[in-house]
Write a structure and sequence with these properties.
Length: about 260
């Protein structure tokens, strides 16, 4: 695969997308340009996330990875088209996008430190129409995610701010899943975590993707682990998608190995 940029498309010549029909896509970005004020960070970015699969988004600091997630969740305006399960999200605010089925775990976890673990989980039901945080269905989901993340069950009454970094990240993921999203956006979930905790978290995310059939966009600094659990990968460079392919192929690509795997 060449990494020379085709100026007409804003992406690398020969960069590929997952080989699935559009009807089987959970999320699609088509020529998305976005930024902050006059500063453009993304330049006609296109990527696809098949239903039930995990896609890793790699790149150096400042490449635009977080901006991609913010554009998807409606936090910043964009040009181009973003669609979720065939529905155009362009121009929508974050709340209706969340109700459509986008769950977003931002960098830094984004839990409410002064609320307990139980309270944080119940806050996660907010995007679900017709739901009340004290309802029976919500309680069933709380129990489900406490079973999935057993360390949280032992800290149910503790304030989120008192949890370890790994526990806070698990709480952030569980809270996002309380809304039953069809697509989960994860921004650097291993940031600041010890290697063993990172390994455990990645195993949990792989199981989550497999058992819940939730599609995942994973922005991750640990490219080796991200490519191990993802099915497809995109490499973002200076706001352009410059390399993409099956995760197993990218992990063997010399350019990716030198730049992101430390080999």
């Amino acid at each position: 695969m060449s990494i020379d940029v085709d100026d007409n498309q804003g992406r690398a010549v020969g960069a590929a997308d997952p080989p699935v029909e559009r009807a089987d896509l959970a999320l699609e970005l088509d020529s998305v340009t976005a930024g902050y004020g006059p500063l453009e960070v993304l330049h006609r970015v296109s990527l696809r996330v098949p239903r039930g699969q995990m896609v890793a988004l790699l790149g150096a600091n400042g490449a635009g990875k977080t901006t991609v997630l913010r554009a998807i969740s409606g936090e910043i305006r964009h040009r181009g088209r973003i669609s979720l399960n065939g529905h155009d999200l362009s121009g929508r605010a974050p709340e209706p996008i969340a109700k459509r089925g986008i769950g977003h775990v931002p960098q830094g976890r984004g839990t409410f430190p002064n609320l307990t673990v139980s309270e944080n989980l119940r806050v996660g039901t907010t995007p679900r129409r017709g739901w009340f945080t004290g309802g029976r269905a919500a309680q069933e989901d709380v129990e489900k995610w406490l079973t999935f993340f057993p360390s949280l069950a032992r800290r149910l009454g503790a304030k989120a701010g008192s949890l370890s970094g790994g526990e806070q990240q698990m709480l952030a993921v569980a809270r996002a899943m309380m809304a039953r999203p069809s697509v989960l956006l994860l921004d650097e979930p291993s940031l600041g975590l010890a290697p063993l905790i990172t390994q455990e978290l990645m195993e949990r995310l792989a199981e989550l993707n497999r058992t819940e059939s939730v599609s995942i966009v994973l922005v991750e600094q640990n490219a080796r682990l991200a490519l191990r659990i993802a099915s497809w990968g995109y490499v973002l460079e200076s706001g352009h998608i410059n390399i993409s392919g099956a995760a197993s192929e990218l992990s063997e690509d010399d350019r990716v190995r030198r730049a992101y795997l430390g080999l």
